[in-house]
Design goal:
It contains 15 helices and 17 strands. It is an alpha+beta fold. Among the domains are: 89 residues, Thrombin, subunit H (Beta Barrel); 176 residues, no CATH class; 39 residues. The strands form 2 sheets. A 6-stranded antiparallel barrel has the order 2-3-4-7-6-5. It has a two-stranded antiparallel ribbon with strand order 16-17. Strand 6 and strand 7 form a beta hairpin.
């Protein structure tokens, strides 16, 4: 087993969870805003879902007509003073007023000051990453034998832990990300984003909706000193993890699943750390991961186009990182000399070429030492010595249609168009997974979704259910 026990690491989140649970009940709220109609106004705070707190209060018509969205307002909840950047007034039915808060933080919290931070994201349902990423078991409390699943991410200069806390009723559970070093709020946001999007890609569960950021002065992170709450982007659950270390989850044939099972493995923490570091270091790479997640979470109509854009972007990224190995003319001096010679030929025949023609030719000469679009897409696979199948090459040809605005396959009848588009999307996604996982150092088997879903798209494939990369 790859699971390890860390005797010296304890996760203390009871105090933080108690605050979250209190903020998810109906409680009295008192506003404080000098020279405002809401100053000292008492209302009802409630939180029915993950779209932020709702506020209800009463105001007479004269006072209310002076109200718009209110910037920089303080309020009290259970003797704790909070500050919000904006109170959004959403409805008025005299004398009842409805409002909403998208973010708030404890009075005294300073975004520029360094703290030990901890992000807690609530999520619904039972979820685990047993078959996706290698994990450790950490003690939840020194005197409590209950443990939680944890991933340790080693960035270049610090360590980040991601773990799950599961409640006994399992209705609402929590994803937790904390850091071993003191950081400013903005720096912690960057690390949690890189970690969350990498975790979302590998598990195909991108937990967001809302975030509770707890700030601690002490490293043990037991009693929060400050809280920053904010609404996040919507969570996404595509349910297409690129790798899965249990063949029984995808293969109906028990004998075949039993044969393949020992050949599969999870992503190691070292490999996952490398993926997170790539995501953290490159905005382009992180945008590609996010595009993949969003595309797989969207309707079928957008999947082939979105994944084609992702493959194009990833290929550009990989080629850009390996220019000296992929350019047709490896020597910069030789490339410069060839361009100068070709431009001289244009000069010699300039009388027979109009200005527009010369401009077109010189533009092509300037780009003569570049790969063709088709070669740019296949070159990344050559760099990792991965041989594309004929089916792979065929789908790469299709990507040009989707990149140039073709939403549907006009050469396929309506009855089979959706099936064909789904097949192309799954093939493109598998190709993306090959490149991304190899970049992270993972060299094992990945889920071959075109084969997994051949009953859905209707194309019989002589391929394995898991592809060796």
């Amino acid at each position: 087993m790859n699971q390890k026990k860390e005797e010296s690491n304890f996760k203390n989140i009871d105090d933080a969870l108690a605050i979250i649970k209190n903020l998810n009940t109906k409680i009295s709220i008192t506003f404080s805003k000098s020279n405002s109609p809401v100053d000292n106004l008492i209302g009802l705070y409630s939180k029915a879902d993950s779209n932020g707190p709702l506020i209800e209060f009463e105001s007479n018509a004269h006072d209310f007509f002076q109200l718009n969205d209110i910037d920089h307002i303080d309020f009290k909840l259970q003797e704790q003073i909070y500050h919000s950047d904006k109170l959004l007034v959403t409805s008025y039915s005299p004398p009842h007023v409805g409002a909403k808060i998208s973010n708030f933080y404890t009075s005294g919290f300073n975004k520029n000051k360094k703290y030990f931070f901890q992000l807690i994201i609530p999520y619904k349902g039972n979820f685990n990453f047993h078959y996706n990423i290698e994990h450790y078991f950490f003690e939840k409390e020194p005197c409590n034998t209950r443990s939680v699943e944890c991933i340790r991410i080693e960035y270049d200069c610090l360590i980040v832990d991601l773990f799950l806390h599961k409640e006994s009723d399992r209705e609402i559970n929590f994803l937790v990300i904390d850091c071993s070093a003191k950081l400013s709020f903005d720096d912690f946001l960057k690390y949690t984003y890189s970690t969350s999007i990498s975790f979302g890609y590998i598990t195909s569960n991108f937990f967001q909706n809302e975030g509770y950021y707890f700030a601690y002065e002490e490293k043990d992170q037991k009693s929060p000193d400050y809280l920053y709450y904010t609404i996040l982007r919507n969570s996404m659950y595509p349910q297409y993890p690129p790798l899965y270390a249990s063949s029984y989850g995808y293969i109906k044939d028990h004998k075949l699943a039993e044969e393949i099972f020992p050949k599969l493995r999870k992503m190691s923490q070292k490999e996952f750390s490398k993926l997170c570091q790539l995501t953290h270091s490159s905005r382009k790479f992180s945008s590609i991961l996010l595009l993949i997640i969003e595309t797989l979470n969207a309707s079928l109509l957008f999947m082939p186009s979105g994944l084609s854009v992702a493959l194009e972007g990833l290929s550009d990224f990989i080629v850009g990182e390996n220019l000296e190995r992929v350019l047709p003319i490896r020597s910069k001096d030789l490339a410069k000399e060839i361009k100068a010679g070709l431009n001289s030929i244009i000069d010699n025949y300039s009388e027979g070429i109009d200005d527009e023609g010369k401009q077109i030719l010189r533009s092509r000469i300037d780009n003569i030492n570049q790969l063709t679009n088709k070669k740019k897409l296949s070159k990344p696979f050559e760099l990792i010595n991965f041989k594309l199948s004929d089916k792979d090459a065929e789908v790469i040809e299709h990507r040009n249609n989707f990149l140039h605005g073709r939403i549907i396959l006009v050469d396929v009848d309506d009855k089979n168009s959706n099936s064909r588009m789904f097949y192309i999307a799954m093939r493109l996604y598998t190709l993306l997974n090959i490149l991304i996982l190899r970049m992270a150092g993972y060299e094992n088997m990945i889920v071959n979704y075109p084969k997994i879903y051949e009953d859905v798209h209707g194309e019989c494939l002589d391929e394995p259910f898991f592809r060796q990369i």
